[in-house]
Design brief:
serine protease, five-stranded antiparallel β-sheet, Rossmann fold, about 20% helix, about 725 residues, alpha+beta, S9 family peptidase, single chain, disordered N terminus
Amino acid sequence: MSDTQASTAPSSTESAPGDDAEPADEFLWLEDIHGAASLAWAEQQNARTEAALDAAAYDRLREQILAVLDDTAKIPDVTKRGPYYYNFWRDETNPRGLWRRTTWASYQQERPEWEVLLDVDALAAADGTPWVFAGASLLRPTPGEPWRRGLVKLSPDGGDAVRVREFDVEEKSFVAGGFDLPAAKTQVSWVDADTIFVGTEVGPGSMTTSSYPRTGRRLTRGQELTEAPVLWEVPEDHLMAVLAHDRTPGFERDIAVDVIDFFRSRTHVADPDSEPGAWRHVDVPDDVNVDLHRQWLLFRPQTDWDHDGTTVPAGTLAAAPLDAFLAGQRELIVVFAPDERTSLQGWSWTAHHLILNLLTDVASRVLVLDPDAGFTGTELPDAPALSTAHAAAVDDEDPDEGDDYWLTVSGFLTPTTLQRGRLGGAATGDDGEPAHTVKTSPSFFETAGLQVEQHFVTSADSTRVPYFQIGPKDLVLDGANPTLLNGYGGFEISRTPAYSGAIGRSWLTRRTADGRSGVYVIANIRGGGEYGPGWHRAALQANRPRAYEDFAAVAQDLIDRGVTTREHLGCSGGSNGGLLVGNMLTTWPHLFGAISCGVPLLDMRRYTKLSAGYSWIAEYGDPDDPEQWAFIRTFSPYHNLVPGTDYPATLIYTATSDDRVGPVQARKMAARMARMEAMGADDVWFYEALEGGHAAASDNRQAAQMAALSSQFLWQQVAG
């Protein structure tokens, strides 16, 4: 990297290698996100990075990925509200997208007839703002009335801050004089046709240190936001306040949640006719997740829960009648009990059943339980081997279709299918209907000759860690195969098999000069949720390095098995996964030939002061606490660069509009590596998209550009 790239930074002196003193941060000036000097630096880096790519290959790959994203035969994901199925759709003609709906009869056709509600491209052109659709919430009407009013969220730049406007789906227009909240990290919930609960920025003190709403207000139509009474508030150092209204017929209630951090919260309930502030606390430990559905409470503890002398293991799902529990009764029904190989990934209620989505050694299972029979039940047919099956209710309140469910099945080499079935049982008096295929995603790459394998490796502390390997059936184990290793390892997020036309085209079916295709690997490391909350907590805070040791163990196993070698092994990760691969760069550089690091955390000394970073203290620790900084520094890539190290080629990319992690950490890491040019870090590349938020993309073309950028960089480095 040329000396001019960091020339606008003030000079400072680093402490000597091995010195306990913290290095001076010579790149604080890059924390001015929209400053002229910072943006000029980023623009210079972008030009250099684009110039370094094989332009023809890069352009070709970008168009191949864009064709996948824009393909009109993809499955349109839908949400049922009343008689209609709502969808948000982007394609070549509508890059910003269409919010639309159709009927069930039409949806089943090969080419459904869609009623367009909102054309975001037209809105963006009319307003002169590059709006990004961020979702909509429809008001459940009173019985006999049509679904009509919605609250539409629009981001001005793809970030988390959104403008909220009231919309009439019958008139297909925004409501004149309707609810209209300025762009902020806002939460809204309908109370009735003229009232909403709002959590948003309303002057000083209204947002938490984590940049989320600290208060919840009741806003009446025509009322100024500053005049809306505050019904709920939380301490400033908690993550956020949530105030919501449940309009389920027969179970109407207000819900207030004090979200302390990502893993702890306190839930409160109030009847709509109760006095303001008359909240009833659901009295469980803060780290027990609480879910309310009609007459039921569900509990899932993050750690072992001593409940009246009985241990409820972490990851268990337990149930209790809501009214009885609030009245002081404490009997629980264990709905699901985990074991060392099986974890609960999520649940969904139909009218008469509870659906559980499970993983056993990262293989999907779906259980259907009957609450009226003590939550006994049966297992749906297994998903295909090494695939993911996920079941969820279609619309639990529909009088005729309340027990219908979606079943989505996807695999690394199997295009996604959307199926629909109906659950039977004593409550409905029928046997139901098995799931049948409604839609199938097109195949975007040739899978003949490819196979999926699952392997297990022993990590540094003897923990057994699984990973998926996708590549040729006749793979030659001579270490010369271009291999891409991907992972995440945080926030109890699981990495499961899923079809990706972009990965298929950009890696699995791409060929080297000698005819080899790429090998793609997903590592199911600790910090994720593949084995439940214990798997996640095993890599929290001081134990964070366990996740990185797991990932390095997978990389070493790929080398030991002859799949690849350092010069042919690349790794990629985004967000928390960016921190993961940042640690591969600084601690295990000898394992990788190239690293792609997207929208990352990297400066763990200042991450709590940047964008929404304060909200992740429960995951990583508090660097302002000297005892915690002592262990955080061990996995802070920005502080662990060592002059003279043989670092692999590195791409770091981000987005100016990312208001979650922010562009600052990526900028500073690239700049510090560039300054070390003469000491061995002369192959670092940086790219910053202007919009797109934490996804670094606001439309399909931008998404294709970023995917192609990462893949082309890695391919050039490890495929030769």
